[in-house]
Amino acid sequence: MAAVKETVEQVRSIGVEQYKYGFETLIESEKAPKGLSEDIVRYISARKDEPEWMLEWRLDAYRRWLSMEEPHWARIDFPQIDFQDIYYYSAPKAFKPLSSLDEVDPEILRTYEKLGIPLREQELLAGVVRPEGDRPRIAVDAVFDSVSVATTFKEELKSAGVIFMPISEALQEHPELVRKYLGTVVPVTDNYYATLNAAVFSDGSFVYVPPGVRCPMELSTYFRINERNTGQFERTLIIADKGSYVSYLEGCTAPQRDENQLHAAVVELVALEDAEIKYSTVQNWYPGDAEGKGGIYNFVTKRGDCRGDRSKISWTQVETGSAITWKYPSCVLRGDESRGEFYSIAISNGRQQVDSGTKMIHLGKNTSSRIISKGISAGRSNNTYRGLVSAHRKAENARNFTNCDSLLIGDTCGAHTVPYIEAKNPTAKFEHEATTSKISEETLFYCMQRGLTQEDAVALVVNGFVRDVLQQLPMEFAVEAQKLISISLEGSVG
Amino acid sequence: MTMAAEARPISAQPARGQPARTAAETAFATTFAAVKAELPGSATFAARREEAFGRFADAGLPHRRVEEWRYTDLRRLMREMAPLAATPATQLEKAPEAAGLLAAVECRKLYVVDGVFAPHLSDLADLEAGLTILSLADALRDDAHVGGVAVSKRLGETFPCTDVMFALNAAFAAEGVVVHVAEGAELARPLELIHVNTGTEPVSMFTRSLVVLEKGAKANLVESHEGPDGVAYQVHTALELVVGEGAQLDRVKLTREGDAALHISTVLLDIAASALVRTAGFMLGGAIVRNQTFAQLTGKEIHAVFGGVSLLGNRQHADTSLAVEHLAPGCESRENFRAVLDDHARDVFQGRIAVRREAQQTDARMMTRALLLSDTAEADNKPELEIFADDVQCAHGCTTGNLDEQVKFYLMARGIPEKEAEALLIQAFVGEVVDAIELEGVREALIGATRSWLKERA
Amino acid sequence: MSPLLEVRDLHARIEDGRKIIEGMNLVINPGEVHAIMGPNGAGKSTLSYVLSGKPGYEVTSGQVLFHGKDLLEMEPDERAAAGLFLAFQYPLEIPGVPTMSFLHTAVNAQRKTRGEPEMTAPELLRKVRALAKVLEIDADMLKRPVNVGFSGGEKKRNEVLQMMLLEPSLAILDEADSGLDIDALKIVANGVNSLRSPERSNLIITHYPRLLEYIVPDVVHVFANGRIVHSGDANLARELEATGYAKYQGEAA
Fold first, then answer.
1. What is the pTM of this model?
2. Given CB atoms, is C244 within the 8 Å cutoff of chain B?
């Protein structure tokens, strides 16, 4: 596949520093004053020219947030976040809705290049049209700090009836759809960070796939935090109407900085009858340096609601970045015969702390779920899988299979597994298995005897360890992810 | 979101807006103030009781926001504190018949009746060489020593344990048994520690025992707890087990309290190098039961086996919580638990295997399985791995479900009626743990207990 | 003489609604050996499950009489006690249940239902050991849990052992020959033949005629599209080996 090869070469040409996305884009931006208040919430809403109900929704969230406490149950340790020391809104200066991609600041486009966004997507972003047919196409939305800067393929998607646009734009163009679904999967007061997000979210993607439509291409969003001391609070809402299908990819990066930056996103997925949503993430926020200085605090709430019968939601994630990852993409299996899947690779190195996993909540009859989680800890990091599988009283014949494996590289890291398995229906069958092991010396020796360097050997073994999950990713992402894994583990042995 | 969405953030810290003291908490405080002067032990020991009660008072009864107690919310389940059992308690003139598990097995029976050790009922004659048995109350009053160390210095010193209910026990406990087995001594007869409650009024009892096996010693220990149905008595019991280097301990605990009873038990198990410990719990009776075990494997090459069976019906709530900590290299631990649930019963299993950085070459495996026989039963499982060493083999597995319909049909196709087929399969399910029990008499007794449970069910 | 088994216009489906048996008729008299042959997926195993009462199969119409009684009204264990035995195509492994206590429970449950005295453990042990010898089953296997760690062939022999022990009046053998080498096949066939008597009948379900070389049937039926489409004597099996089932599948359609 040509695109894949290009991508690989592209990635290679960028070089293999510990963190290859640690550059900063020098573009002028416009910020709201630091700190959080009702005025800031009003400011954000006004900047987006939002309807009155949306402002009320945000203000309600803000007021509730004031009375909430940060959760402390995860196995993560970090200094108190000063929520008044953060910029809640930052936009590339003179930002206005673009009539064509040529208007995108060339600096931003250069950023994409540095990000290693597959060449093809850059072209799309840059408006280059290639002949059809040699590869699948991907529609891209790019969120730069607080705003979405470009969405490609809008017209073609429109003719298929698919709505793919920044959520700020959707609030203007399809307020009824946004209003109908926003906050119905992750309620305003769901948790501390989700509530904060509801108050201050600036942008994100909105997708609506009408009944019976199979979205003609992969949809993708790249998230980039650029500004110093800026929080990113994007909100993504995807609705797959009856019998539709959509595959959505998400990539994230941030520059290298000494301070910690906050990312508190919310993703809501709604799958109606017979619909399917496949959501893939390659998360590579800046993880901080080897001593734990800097890095993104990633507190994300992702949840999918299998609202209709026979609906399906599948989460695939490759997590290599962030100083702290707190994230549990979940499925509420409400419809009968609905299905949830969670495939995850979480790699931690340096001083990274990962507390991630999923929740599969079986409510409907004959619902099924599958969890495959691969955690790899290296350096002085801690990597925790935390997952809940529950069958409620009416969840007849619910099925879950969970496999969660951890690999330790070196003896200064930690790998932890914390599953919660709750069954309230006798016909529900849950199976859970977990293992923790290390890369066997013998395997390493065998590879090295055949001429591989130790790092190559480790990468080889690790790639084998995570293969089940990599296979779930769309091809382009899989290659990127594989490379990312090797980079993340550099310096972890020897 | 996340776990919090299901409304249970997890923190040992009291949450903001923590409700005022519950009636039970207040009763513990007033009772402790009233009786502390009477409790046995030196002034130093009394200070430790005071400190322990302080810890309880600060935290209050554990509730669902305390991670270790999330499934057993005592603030909700234990509304009242039953009045403290009067001391001296009603003393029986002869041992209750059919009490204990090993009625048919030759063993040394020690009775704790209504929360008080009863030497006159216990078999204290012809103690084997190296075996010492004392009343805890006497040992504290007389500052008795075992193995050259004062009992008061050993008690509560096995290793630090921050659990709040253990602290509550430490504050109140006055009665129990101290068993010491000297270096190299091998006990020919199993010890059976029988706790029987006979009262018809709901009372609170606090007992605490200490069992020390010195280097190379060998012992079999069976504990049972039982009492009358229909009486809402409350048992707070703790056991400290110290197993010396190369020693061998086989232990079974049977919980068969009355159907209205509350039973909170803490076991601290300290294991030294090269020791072999096999311990199993068998949970049958009690309305609300928490059996928590904290084990530390402090020396090399220990082999430790933990097993448990819960057979629950009605509205029983049974919580088995086990934390096994590997602190030294080359140890092997096995955890194997089964729960069978009928009616509205709820079984909780929490099992944590922690492997510290030093504990390389650890081999730890845990398997928990729950069988739900009714539409209204609930099984909550939390098997947990916490690993800091890289050269380890650790695994856990967990299943929940009902009986395999295919297998049941196979049995019925051979002419075995449904209930009988179920009974066979349940026995096999439980047998995966029971069959591993070393002492034959105990094993047989537990198989018998399973059979009678199944018979009652049918 | 009244028939042992009488199937009258039987219609049955699987729980998911798929119709598997559509208008089946069959009469087996005491002492007869019937073979049901047909292509894979024709629903032959379903027939064995419907007759033995496996949950998940629904009889929508028709009647089955066994010893003149309504078989479909009985629980699986009652059918077994009445003398119906099914040798499973895939015998199940039952971890934790020792083979001997399984056999003991089964024999005595059936005897109890029939109002017969129980068999003692030593008596059972003697019988089982003798049968094991005939079937060349290693005595060690009897100490293991039911079928656990048995090879495919060993499981099949264990099914025949159970059959010989329980002495049913009608034994249904579902693909009893699959997974057997020629020696094992002969052993299984000898076991089945040793039970043949004027009172006992067999229903052999297979899609290979090979087994029928060793257990010669009185009647051979071709089963396709949910019912018996053709019947004949033992020669029909040989004929089928030569011609295959295509012709009959067409006939039914």
1. 0.83
2. no
